[in-house]
Amino acid sequence: MPSDRRGGPLNGVRVIDLTNVIMGPFATHILADLGADVVKVEAPDGDSFRGYLPARHAGMAGNFLHLNRNKRSIVLDLKRAEARSALDRLIAGADVFVHAMRPAAAERLGYAYERVRGLNAGIVYCGAYGFGSGGRYADKAAYDDIIQAGSGLSALQEAMHGAPGYLPTVLCDKIAGQAIAYAILAALFQRASGGGGQAVEVPMFETMVEFNLVEHMMGATFVPPLGAPGFNRVISPRRKPYATRDGYACILPYSDRNWHDFFDFTGRTEFKSDPRFARLGVRVQNIDVLYALVEEEAKARSTAEWAAFCDRVSIPFMPVNALDDLFEDPHLQDVGFFSTTEHPTEGPYRTQRRPVSFSTSPFEIRHHAPRLGEQTREILAEAGLSETDILALTGDPDTTASMEQIS
Questions:
Q1: Quick check: 13 and 181 in contact, CB under 8 A?
Q2: What distance in Å separates the CA atoms of residue 382 and residue 369, rounded to the nearest whole number?
Q3: Same-domain status, 179 and 309
Q4: Could you tell me if 285 and 232 are in contact, meaning their C-beta atoms sit under 8 angstroms apart?
Q5: What CA–CA distance (Å, rounded) separates 205 from 129?
Q6: Does the structure show a pLDDT above 80 at 5?
Q7: What pLDDT, in 10s, does the model give residues 187-204?
Q8: Domain check: are 261 and 173 in the same one?
Q9: Based on the structure, what is the number of domains in the chain?
């Protein structure tokens, strides 16, 4: 086992990670930041996310540095029998095995659940799939855009913007990544309670359908339906940041008291006695009228004036931050969310701390994001392979990947 086991509630848990790009690595990023020893198993050409730009050296892209910190990298060419044998040894000593291969591909490679359970009966085996293995889509390719389209997220954009669209974030990858993390944690808890190992399946499509329908089931909940699905307030075309005199802001009166304060502040007191806005359930049915009012009034004052008023009377408010603004946000500075640290090969870089905190487990970066195969020898030796076996697998006493400077 590795000598460095500090740093979080999952201290002592070992995860064998056969995922790449964002969905799976985001899940194991969470586990690694919580203290797990995440062994990132990479093919000889590495996780494709390494190759994005900008980067100071090939294979060490900026996004990769954040998503893969606190992990260790081993290169195994799983087309070779001796590499699969080495992976088997790693699995035998692990707590969690997580992959994002399609079910049929995992079966062909020899890493379906039944065989993995034979290597380690107590393993928590997590298959992160695009679509559930029991359905006709099981072997379809799945990327974030595909799942946004299939789960109803894209169609919701039509109600607001006149045409289906994609959210400008890989939301499905990240939500599914969180689902992978919490599913693994639940399975580890069950095992710790005497329930043994098990197979866990996390499909992106079903995860996002549930996520999307939380507020949008509405009348479709009932049989027969009491109305169409879709939450009026959320899909209103007038639900948007509003132009102030000098910028944009989210001004969101919500409670009865919020709206009455807003009406008083803007001089629109006639709305206070209007039965369409008397209580929340009825108000939501007439929300476009109120959002039009906010849009009209927002232009009359500066963002700072709106902030002062809304904060004083506890109306939810935030200015619209551009991505660059986040690094200077005063609250994020107060809580020390961003810091600058030094990567041993990539130099100084900005990092984000773990967003959740534990009173007895302060956050730390135990390992910076690894170079491709940086810990191959170390991990193989921990698994009990001899120097001869390691040399046969790597072909070189030094398996640390070389780096090409990018200009």
A1: no
A2: 20
A3: no
A4: yes
A5: 9
A6: no
A7: 999 999 999 999 999 999
A8: no
A9: 2
Residue 344 sits at φ, ψ, to 5 deg, of -60, -25
Q: What is the pLDDT of residue 111?
A: 96
Q: Which CATH number characterizes residue 349's domain?
A: 3.40.50.10540
Return the number of other C-beta atoms located less than 10 Å from residue 354's C-beta: 20
Domain range for 53? 14-211+335-394
Q: Phi and psi dihedrals of 354, rounded to 5?
A: -60, 130
Residue 107 structure tokens: 């079966």
Cα 7 to its chain centre, rounded Å, is 21
The residue with tokens 């135990």 is 366
For the whole prediction, is pTM greater than 0.85? yes
Residue type, 328: E
**Pairwise CA distance, residues 196 & 339, whole Å:** 40
The verdict on 301 and 386 lying in the same domain is: no
In a domain, 60, yes or no: yes
- Helices H / strands E in the chain, number of each: 18, 11
CA dihedral 383, 387, 392, 394 (to 10 degrees): 70
Task: Using the CB atoms, write b or e for 82-112: b if 16+ within 10 Å.
Answer: ebeebbbbbbeebbbbbbbbbbeebeebebb
Q: Are residues 261 and 346 in the same domain?
A: no
Strands 124-129, 96-99: pairing is parallel
pLDDT (tens digit per residue) in 300-344: 999 999 999 999 999 999 999 999 999 999 999 999 999 999 999
Query: Same domain for 174 and 29?
Result: yes
State the virtual CA torsion across 307, 312, 316, 319 in degrees, nearest 10. Answer: 10
CATH number, domain at 278? 3.30.1540.10
Residue 259, in any domain of the structure: yes
Asked whether residue 399 is assigned to any structural domain, the reply reads no
Residue 401 lies in a domain: no
Residues with Cβ within 8 Å of 293's Cβ and at least 6 positions away in sequence, in order, are 266, 268, 271
Taking only the tens place, the pLDDT of each residue in 254-285 is: 999 999 999 999 999 999 889 998 888 888 88
Taking Cα atoms as reference points, which of 305, 314, 291 lies closest to residue 242?
Answer: 291
Reply yes or no on whether the pLDDT at 7 is more than 80: no
Do residue 62 and residue 193 come from a single domain? yes
Question: Does residue 32 sit in the same domain as residue 162?
Answer: yes
Helix (H, G, I), strand (E, B) or coil at 340: strand
